[in-house]
Amino acid sequence: KTMTDHKTSKEQKYDRQLRLWGDHGQEALENAHVCLINATATGTEILKNLVLPGIGSFTIVDGHKVSGEDVGNNFFLTSSSIGKNRAQAATELLQELNGDVSGNFVEESPDKLLDNSPEFFHRFSLVIGVQLPESTYLRLGSVLWEAGAPFLICRTYGLIGYMRLIVKEHTVVESHPDNALEDLRLDQPFTELKNHVESCDLDNMEKKDHSHTPWIIVVAKYLEKWYSEHNSQLPKNYKEKEAFRQLIRAGILTNENGTPEDEENFEEAIKNVNTALNPTKVPSGTEGIFNAEQCENITSQSPSFWVIAHGVRDFVRNEGNGNLPVRGTIPDMIADSDKFIKLQNVYRDKAMKDAAVVSKHVEALLQSVGKPPESTSEQEIKLFCKNAAFLRVVRCRSLFSICDSEMVLYLMLRSIDRFYQQHSRYPGVYNYQVEEDINKLKLCVNSLLQEYSLNVNVKDDYIHEFCRYGAAEPHTVAAFLGGSAAQEAIKIITHQFVPFNNTFLYNAMSQTSATFQL
Amino acid sequence: MKNSREFQNFYFENDVVRQVVIALPRHKVAHFTLNVYDNMAEGEEPMVVDGGNGDRSDWQGQWDHVKKFLERAGPFTHPDFEPSTESLQFLMDTCKILVIGAGGLGCELLKDLALSGFRHIHVVDMDTIDISNLNRQFLFRPKDVGRPKAEVAADFVNDRVLGCNVVPHFKKIQDLDESFYRQFHIVVCGLDSVVARRWMNGMLLSLLIYEDGVLDPSSIIPLIDGGTEGFKGNARVILPGMTACIDCTLELYPPQINFPMCTIASMPRLPEHCVEYVRILLWPKEKPFGDGEALDGDDPKHIQWVYQKSLDRAAEFSITGVTYRLTQGVVKRIIPAVASTNAVIAAACATEVFKIATSAYVPLNNYMVFNDVDGLYTYTFEAERKENCSACSQVPQDLQFLPSAKLQEVLDYLTENASLQMKSPAITTTLDGKNKTLYLQTVASIEERTRPNLSKTLKELGLVDGQELAVADVTTPQTVLFKLNFIS
């Protein structure tokens, strides 16, 4: 056992977040290089929330000069930077937040870069484009899609926040589900579990042992009794489960007067009957992953996610008898230490055994495509097996798909883009424009609706409101998006937790939000 | 052409909200005149404040983003809203905001408010800066470790945002009194403790003025409350005396579960049990750093000792998984935290402060929940007032006990009941015309003197049916009145 008693100052600094994504998640963050296009308030707020947790490096691409207005809503610009290049000014104050991070800037508009050297964008783990006109984000989207690089588009427009994620394929092993069901195998006990249960002579135990036997063993024992009376069939419906609960309850020890003793472990067993007898099976999400084309056809280019998935699939179809490798964890329960640890080890050992078999399959697979067995680590395979029931793959469509939904706010943002295309400015920026732009914007809305054959009525109020916004970027809305987008970026980089797919809208007027898949 | 009614109807179907929204004349007054406020102390001069360290020479365009929401009419604005160039002046010159907490949420709130036009901001925080704060409390740097959060935060914002005047208070909220809190238009909390929230809630409730049983709206100080934990968070708007308060929804904060003693003492199964054993049983027994030296979760030497002993304990029972990180997490009850969640929740809260201060939009009604573990999820609902809320209902709380019940049972009820969750209640009553303390825990000598009362029955103590008990507790600045009903 290692006695790491001294924590580095980095470990101390990042302690609160390491408890969320672990050292390996932190490592992924520190190896990442993120590109931000446009150091507006939204952009710098996003970057702030990436710099603070220790992103490896960032590069700001921005050809604009700092204006007085920019300084007003942006914490990372000061009045002394008015007239200077915005990328540089923001980089300085963002860099200052965390000495572990290296910041860079490019004083150039993204359009110029796309014209002259689009491969500039290939070096990044993720590109975040903020407050971009449609033509730019369409071009960028195309370049990044070809390069297989994730692209996150963000925008604050008045009291509306918007995010769009574009990534071809994003795999997640560690989705960290809330309230996951346990993997206890009570309906299909593996040999070692069967043997262990058998070795416990529950019926003849002294009270102390009887009351401190883990509920898993209690359920297993009474299940055997049930099988003998019910043709080896699991309790299926409510009535049968209730009868089964009564069977267990009848097994609670009684004292000399016939009153039942206080056996908390039996109460736990009764309570858990509902979920403990759920049939073990491969969840549909994982099944879908096994059936995916990328899993079926492994090549030397296949990412390790798919290689291991194929290996697990081989396990399921052979040694697993249709089941995933055993997860290996059990919840805490009333029991004495010895009984609990012994039971826990039964599951742990089986999980290790199963993972080793999966390893063999993976090795054979790697060999068959000419890759060394070290291409995937034991750690990776173990982590994958442990999370086999919770795997997720997120695929976001590229931008060139037709909008087929009816969210007014999204339509308004697209109409704003159209307005910009036609007039080279946003509506209502100056007070005198507000009234006259309403009709112009309305024309944009209608043409958009027509183009996509959408039979939607967009109320005049929204058109008025969006003219009123005058492309304002109020700080609090930018800050909300800053937190939201940064966490999505961290999900993309660490492959932990599940990113949204693929359009997110925040309405600060009502404090509501919605996610759509467009 | 305002269509705010329709917007209101679209989002809020509730009559109470409409009443609330219209019944805030003080804010309307505040909005359009730069005058005196009803809730000022006698003889005070109106708050004409000069901009602190910033004069009015802002550069061109500084407030362009904000002005669009104050100087333009719109279809979704609050029914009271009227576009004006004076609104910004009010925000900057007169409006006073109190931020409670200068930590994860507090830092974000100060920035958000400063960049939304607010200049007169006070911030209260009793803590000093720790290195583990630096991953999200971005107004602090490694060189600031050990310094008071409120002071460092104020300095940073005042320096970065020209004209802003943040005033720090390195104090506990309980160290400030009514006259301090009364001066603010809005209070926004970024606290990490339910007890502190309840206290703040109680303080604002105590400032309410009722005339002939009718609440005077000008005595209402809105409370915006934000909370975060890992990837989850919530933001809520409380109008004391009108909408659900913290105590109305106490069930949303379930009491912390501790491991049972028998598990810790003789049947550990998890690494956490081993750490708790060392913390609760071994430390007081072995006193490794001297008599009376309490376990300090921030002292690495203490944690190191606990860690080693926890490893020993775990080895005894073949338990794996004790690490230094786990040990510290258990001892300090650490809650994981990141910058992003705090950014989101603080932003939502600051948006509400802006809406209420300017009447720009109808405020959140009244509770938003956020979670970005899987995609991004928000849920917005109206938390309801509790008819018999122990904090805001002004109705004496009912206590039902047998006359033969012991005082200890009453004490247990006060601490264990989910709607009360008191920490160390002190119970007093009037007997024979005199004020009598039945039990008080927080002063050792009184605790000793009154301890025998706990094993006496209510009848023995001389209490009668209908007896009024006044209970004081750290969760509220005012005493809570209870009425004892004897059951048979």
TrEMBL record, chain A:
Keyword field: Ubl conjugation pathway
SUPFAM superfamilies cross-referenced by the UniProt entry: Activating enzymes of the ubiquitin-like proteins
InterPro entries: APP-BP1 (IPR030667), ThiF/MoeB/HesA (IPR045886), ThiF_NAD_FAD-bd (IPR000594), Ubiquitin-activating_enz (IPR035985)
Pathway the protein takes part in: Protein modification; protein neddylation
Molecular function via GO: NEDD8 activating enzyme activity
Pfam families from the UniProt entry: ThiF (PF00899)
Annotated family: Belongs to the ubiquitin-activating E1 family. ULA1 subfamily.
Protein name per the record: NEDD8-activating enzyme E1 regulatory subunit
Organism: Cyprinus carpio (Common carp)
From TrEMBL, chain B:
Signal peptide: none
Enzyme class name: ligase
GO cellular component terms given for this protein: cytoplasm; nucleus
Record-listed E.C. numbers: 6.2.1.64
Active site feature: 262 (glycyl thioester intermediate)
Keyword list, A-Z: ATP-binding, Ligase, Nucleotide-binding, Ubl conjugation pathway
GO molecular function: ATP binding; NEDD8 activating enzyme activity
Keyword Ligase: yes
Catalytic activity: ATP + [NEDD8 protein] + [E1 NEDD8-activating enzyme]-L-cysteine = AMP + diphosphate + [E1 NEDD8-activating enzyme]-S-[NEDD8 protein]-yl-L-cysteine
Annotated TM spans: none
GO biological process: protein neddylation
Domain E2 binding stretches: 399-487
UniProt-listed InterPro entries: E2-binding (IPR014929), ThiF/MoeB/HesA (IPR045886), ThiF_NAD_FAD-bd (IPR000594), Ub_act_enz_dom_a_sf (IPR023318), Uba3_N (IPR030468), Ubiquitin-activating_enz (IPR035985), UBQ-activ_enz_E1_Cys_AS (IPR033127)
This protein's pathway: Protein modification; protein neddylation
Family according to the record: Belongs to the ubiquitin-activating E1 family. UBA3 subfamily.
Protein name: NEDD8-activating enzyme E1 catalytic subunit
